[in-house]
């Protein structure tokens, strides 16, 4: 007689998107060294996939595969494990719950696309579900903010305005779907190193320190051409100073017909806005052929934040 198939331990699957910054305005460093930000995030269709399985109480483990995973810590330095443990601690369940997680990474590491934050957001949502905590993406926001500045946005996704260190997020009114070509570099840029160079270069804080009204209007009307003209990133100069080839890459993308080009976050990923899907695909091909980047990817946005699949 065939052996009965026993159900395995409960498992959930979550995916969480990368972000790009349509605006990144950086204010002067505060006394604690952090720079206040005025940013507009957009979540795009490049996803981390996390599988979480119930484990013995006190067991918190993680395996990562895919893009850049060999460079990542698998101990508590990894944001996903830190998120799981923090959720358990805050819920008063640290000795009563456990989780075994597997992350399939597609977002390059240290690329300005907040891959680590996407993993943390995915871990929060997966563990909250697995442990029956009845906490959805909104209720997880305060804990997400304590884990890292980009984690709250990774939970809500869409298009949102971020302030503070980026952790205070408010969904932006907007319409339209945008087509992007992303160009990945063959190495990462450390976020603290880019901010240090920003300070060394003697930043002139933007006046007024806010998201350009033209960009918000473009989002409200779904006008891709206008959006493309108003993409802005105050970290572009220090990122280019640390990786000069990015300047040429941005120009090549514009010459290939991009209607906007910007470095995402602290770089080095460059995001090129296209007028339609076909043009975005053509852009990825042209950028690949330029030899100025490691690889390219066509994505769309906005997409939702971390979700169960
Ligand atoms: P930031 O959020 O600092 O702007 P980023 O978006 O450029 O960073 P990430 O891929 O999030 O880049 O990684 C930043 C750093 O976080 C890396 O040095 C990496 O070692 C560390 N890190 C910790 N956990 C993870 C994770 N799960 N995935 C990626 N990086 C992680």
TrEMBL record:
Q: What is its EC number?
A: 2.7.1.148
Reactions catalysed according to its record? 4-CDP-2-C-methyl-D-erythritol + ATP = 4-CDP-2-C-methyl-D-erythritol 2-phosphate + ADP + H(+)
Domain of life according to the entry = Bacteria
Limits of the GHMP kinase C-terminal domain: 217-281
Q: Name one GO biological process term.
A: isopentenyl diphosphate biosynthetic process, methylerythritol 4-phosphate pathway
Main enzyme class = transferase
Which Gene Ontology MF annotations are present? 4-(cytidine 5'-diphospho)-2-C-methyl-D-erythritol kinase activity; ATP binding
What residue stretch is flagged as signal peptide?
A: none
The protein's UniProt keywords, in alphabetical order, are: ATP-binding, Isoprene biosynthesis, Kinase, Nucleotide-binding, Transferase
This molecule's function is given as: Catalyzes the phosphorylation of the position 2 hydroxy group of 4-diphosphocytidyl-2C-methyl-D-erythritol.
Protein name (record): 4-diphosphocytidyl-2-C-methyl-D-erythritol kinase
